[in-house]
Structures are given as C-alpha cells and as structure tokens.
C-alpha cells in the first residue's frame, strides 16, 4: 500500500532549498499578498509529476492529507494525483473526485494549483452536465473559486471547441478587481481565438473590449497582429 510517509521522503529527496526564496517571491507569500503564509520546499513541477505517477494509486484519505498540507508542493502533488485518478477513473470515481475538489477549494489557494487541476477535474466532469456550479464559483467572494470557474471552461475549449461557457463566465468576471482574474479571463479568451475561431473571439471583443481591464485585454489579443493589437489598446476598433 502506498503511504504518505514514503511519498514525503521522495518529495523531500528532490527538494531544493535554494529555490525556496524565489518561489516565495514568485507566488506572492508576503503579508498582504495573495499567497501570504504559503510554505515552499523547492520542488519543481516536473519532479512533482514524476512522483504523482509513482503514487497515482494513493488512497483517497492520504490524498486528502496532502491537499490539506501547509506545504504548497504537497497540495499540488495531491491535486496532480487526483487529476491522474480522475482521468483513469470510473464515472463513480470521477464524481467523487469532483465533489471532493469543490468541497476543498479553500486548500486550492494559489494560481498554479488552480491552473493545473480545475479544467481537468471541474471542466472534465461538467463536459456533458449542467454548468450552473460555475456561476456560483464565478460569483464567490473567494479569488480562487472565481479563478476555478473560468479555468474550468478550458476543458470545453480543448475537448469540444465550445466557447459559450468561457464567454458566459468572462462576462460575469469582466469587472473583477483582481489581476489574477484579469489574466485568467484573458488567457481563456485567447484560447478561444486560437482553438475555436478568431472571428468568434473578435465578435466578443468588439462588444466588450472597452470595458475589459487592460491586462485582460492584452492577454486576449496576444496572438493578433501588432496593428490590430494597437487598435484595440487605443480603442479604435
């Protein structure tokens, strides 16, 4: 039986203390910043993925222990294991993981934790189901719930070339006051243009770009020509 004790030994074996200060700065862990208090031990995502594969059969209780850890890399590792289990799991297992994920969003509390899991688990589960939960998440007081809502729509874009959910959530979050939401919404809009249709994205932007936060707009139009980008930024489209 796979155990958390052995997993943690493997995790600390590949930890690099020299990376900790950089990671703490990158993920904004100072007082008053969005990642305040997050603890890092210096493990890279590629190493976390390798460990996740090794412990992909870790039982659900132990995965929960990881997800509730104060150590960032342990929480991310727990999520990566959940993603692997979700992808291989039965409908019953997927439902359990989905419900567990949504009941533990308090621990999915930095942008990389959201970005490496929300589309695959939340979006993956909702592909053929009602998406009302995304409205609840998008209107939550929690920054991370709101980011989960928009990132979850990435799965619709990738799997079905479906953009309506992205546009719907983007409209809800259009006036959000947090930079991490501006970036996430802009990223998803950009993916609509790249994976679905540039024309479809442009039709959305023409209606909303003047009200969009600058960061969001810049992300959304990254793949446009420099001349077109300039017109959007000058407000003369």
What Rg, in angstroms, do the CA atoms define?
19 Å
What string gives the helices and strands in order? Answer: HHHHHHHHHHHHHHHH
Strand content: under 5%
Low-confidence stretches: none
**Terminal residue distance:** 60 Å
- What does the average pLDDT come to? 97
**What is the overall number of helices?**
16
User: In this structure, how is the largest beta sheet organized?
Assistant: none
Helix content: 55-70%
User: What is the structural class?
Assistant: mainly alpha
Tell me the overall shape.
Answer: globular
The number of strands is 0
Give a written overview of the molecule.
By secondary structure, this protein is mostly helical. It is 66% helix and 0% strand. It is built from 16 helices and no strands. Helix 10 (143-152) packs parallel to helix 13, helix 12 packs antiparallel against helix 13 and helix 13 (179-195) packs antiparallel against helix 14. The chain is globular and about 60 Å long. The mean pLDDT is 97.
Keywords:
single chain; 237 residues; mainly alpha; 0% strand
Protein topology:
Blueprint: H1 4-13, H2 20-26, H3 45-54, H4 60-67, H5 72-88, H6 91-103, H7 111-115, H8 118-126, H9 132-138, H10 143-152, H11 154-160, H12 164-172, H13 179-195, H14 198-208, H15 214-220, H16 226-234
Helix pairs in contact: 3-5, 4-5, 5-6, 8-10, 9-10, 10-13, 12-13, 13-14, 13-15
Concise overview:
The chain has 237 residues and is mostly helical.
